Amino acid sequence: MKRQLFLFFIAFYTLGIFSQVKDVSGLWKGFLTQPSNYGITTKYPLWLTIVQKGDSLSGFEKIEGPDPSFYGILPIVGTIKNELLVYVNTNVKEESEASIKSGYRWYLRKVLISITVEKNELKGKWQYPVKNPTDFGEIILTKQVFKYIDPETGIAYFN
Question: 112 Cβ partners below 8 Å, 6+ apart?
């Protein structure tokens, strides 16, 4: 009986070690690619802020257009399991005035990202879940590490 209890404890403990959820909280910076019908791929700067609680994620994206004065801020919700992070944009929270005046629009996306935490890197595919539920472009992000945060202004300085 003691041996069975011991083996059960070891199995339970081992499962706990290998099922740990990776921590992806923080600020990530990189780009999103979008191919066109003409064989040209455009890169859009992308910042992703993630707040993780267990396997649930929330936060927001800031994405810029071809000109940095064109940007949108979109909240996200999602989950993380094993080496896969999945999130969707819930709405467009904010758009720059330049975006609005020009008619430039931000679309909601579904994002599937594989996690390589050792390299502090997130890579994956994104898609329009409503318009065309196929992989549409790529997202590559690296984790940003704060060098210093000014206590008076709250401005973060990066390495």
Answer: 84, 85, 86, 124, 125, 126, 127
Q: Is the pTM of this model over 0.90?
A: no
Phi, psi dihedrals of residue 141, rounded to the nearest 5°: -135, 145
For the record, the structure tokens of 120 come out as: 């502090």
Report the alpha-carbon distance of residue 95 to residue 58 in Å, rounded: 19
Quick: pLDDT tens for 145-156. 766 666 666 566
Domains in the chain: ranges and CATH: 24-145 (2.40.160.90)
Contact 28, 141 (CB under 8 A): yes
Rounded to whole angstroms, the Cα distance separating 121 from 30 reads 10
CB 34 within 8 A of CB 63: no
Q: Yes or no: say if 85 and 52 are a contact pair by the CB < 8 Å rule.
A: no
Q: What is the pLDDT of residues 46-56, one digit of tens each?
A: 999 999 999 99
- What is the per-residue DSSP string for 94-142? EE-HHHHHHT------EEEEEEEGGGTEEEEEEEETTTEEEEEEEEEEE
**Which residues, including other chains, have CB under 8 Å from residue 82's CB and lie 6 or more apart?**
none
DSSP state of 4: H
